[in-house]
Design goal:
The chain folds into two domains: 151 residues, Creatine Amidinohydrolase, Chain A, domain 1 (3-Layer(aba) Sandwich); 265 residues, Creatinase/methionine aminopeptidase superfamily (Creatine Amidinohydrolase, Alpha-Beta Complex). It starts with a helix and ends in an 8-residue tail after the last strand. 35% of the residues lie in helices and 15% in strands. By secondary structure, it is an alpha+beta fold. Helix 1 runs antiparallel to helix 4 and helix 5 packs across helix 6. Belongs to the peptidase M24B family. Bacterial-type prolidase subfamily. Its EC number is 3.4.13.9.
Length: 431
């Protein structure tokens, strides 16, 4: 998208926030809200800090995820002021005051100190952010009802936010292609990670989350966090779950690749991808996400039967007995935006049969969700099932053969539109 068009969308986004914040502040009985960017805490007994990514409600306005010790004041009359931390420092580079169009709508001032700006504040003031950062600031700290209202404001994305998520998906797609090529060329998990970073031009500390890169059985650990330096003697599979942050907004994409010769596992990937595409196509206004999650389990049951992993039981019975949950233990997806698991996703509790589901809304236009079914061979979940009375339905020799491939997850980022949905991932990463 041309920079001029993105700048126009950003201005419209800020104007939307000015109006929405005015309404929320009036409803909550406040004249203004002071928002802290946050700052990276120091490691215990060390002089080094943890990595910082800005506070979500701060990023909603400015999108500058690396800012620390900065403050944003939003008043109900629409005035917005940003105090950017600009210390006199010869140890670190100082963030310059931006020279972008949005600064015509937000007043930007440099400030050497880290405390809240020393100004006269409106009488009824709220202050929100990391409690460690706002403890000395004026105003009511993190009022729950105000935070809930601001969280809800982020549920429906503006055109600017969608454009940012779309660009984050485009950049991440380059990384996923590079990662697949590195795997097929024999790279280790560490090498695949380097290929992903090189293709995206993004450091690990800038990424919206730690990239999950698992070869073989590591693909069965849902949030696998290590990178082996050596490739396995017999590479069988790659699962990569990795995204990009662009102007504060995240993409979150997962792909699974079978090594050459892993025909049965490759067929399972193809089967799960077919199911995943059907679920993406089912996204539309009014769709209950809990029901969509349940539809994913019924689709997985059909795949387990077709692949002969589970036999002699119908699809509904397989789901009712919890057999599909042993192969697919997590939720179908979540909101996506400034945060990877974006806020306000659960207006009602997750159902008992899906305790890890992070999204329980009926879908509305402007929501951005992930669709990420999985099929895994996780010993801690399958072994008890193989020792239960339901073991008669499971093809143990086939399960044992595929354990070494770890598992499959396929994840796209999908925008709910007035007419249905737009897949923000497949535009850039068709397979």
């Amino acid at each position: 998208m041309p920079d001029s068009r993105l700048a126009t969308l950003q201005a419209e986004h800020i104007q939307h926030l000015q109006t929405a914040y005015a309404d929320i502040l009036n409803q909550q009985g406040y004249d203004a809200v002071l928002i802290s960017s946050g700052a990276a805490p120091m490691r215990y007994a060390d002089d080094q800090a943890h990595h910082h990514q800005g506070y979500g409600h701060f990023l909603h306005w400015v999108g500058l995820s690396d800012l620390e010790h900065s403050w944003l004041l939003v008043e109900k009359d629409g005035r917005v002021r940003l105090w950017l931390h600009t210390p006199v420092d010869f140890w670190h580079a100082v963030t310059p005051i931006p020279a972008e169009g949005w600064t015509r709508l937000i007043e930007v001032t440099g400030q050497a100190g880290i405390d809240a700006p020393d100004i006269t504040y409106p009488e009824r003031l709220a202050v929100i952010g990391d409690p460690a950062q706002i403890s000395g600031a004026p105003g009511d700290a993190n009022p729950p009802s105000l935070l809930a209202a601001l969280d809800s404001l982020r549920v429906i994305k503006t055109a600017y936010e969608v454009a940012c998520i779309d660009q984050a998906s485009a950049i991440a797609a380059r990384g996923h292609n590079a990662a697949r090529d590195a795997f097929l060329a024999g790279a280790s998990e560490f090498g695949i990670n380097l290929a992903y970073q090189q293709a995206t031009g993004q450091r690990e500390t800038q990424a919206p989350y730690h990239s999950i890169i698992g070869l073989n059985q590591h693909a069965g650990t849902l949030h696998y966090q290590h990178y082996d330096l050596q490739a396995p003697h017999r590479p069988r599979s790659l699962l990569i779950d990795a995204g990009v942050r662009y102007r504060g907004y995240c993409s979150d994409i997962t792909r699974t690749t079978a090594a050459p010769g892993e025909n049965r596992f490759g067929a399972l990937i193809a089967g799960l991808e077919s199911l995943q595409k059907r679920l993406c196509d089912a996204v539309a206004p009014g769709v209950d996400y809990i029901e969509l999650h349940q539809r994913a389990h019924l689709g997985l049951a059909a795949l387990l039967k077709a692949s002969e992993l589970v036999q002699d039981i119908d699809d509904a019975g397989m789901v009712e007995k919890g057999i599909t949950r042993a192969f697919f233990p997590h939720g179908l997806g979540h909101f996506l935006g400034i945060q990877v698991h974006d806020v306000a996703g659960k207006p009602r509790p997750a159902p008992e049969h899906a305790p890890f589901l992070r999204l329980t809304h009926s879908l509305k236009p402007g929501m951005v969700v992930t669709i990420e079914p999985g099929l895994y061979f996780i010993p801690s979940l399958l072994d008890p099932l193989l020792e239960s009375t339901d073991r008669r339905y499971l093809n143990r020799p086939l399960i044992d053969d595929l354990r070494g491939c770890g598992g499959i997850r396929i994840e796209d980022n999908v925008l709910v539109t007035e007419a249905g949905a737009r897949n923000l991932t497949r535009t850039h990463l068709p397979v």
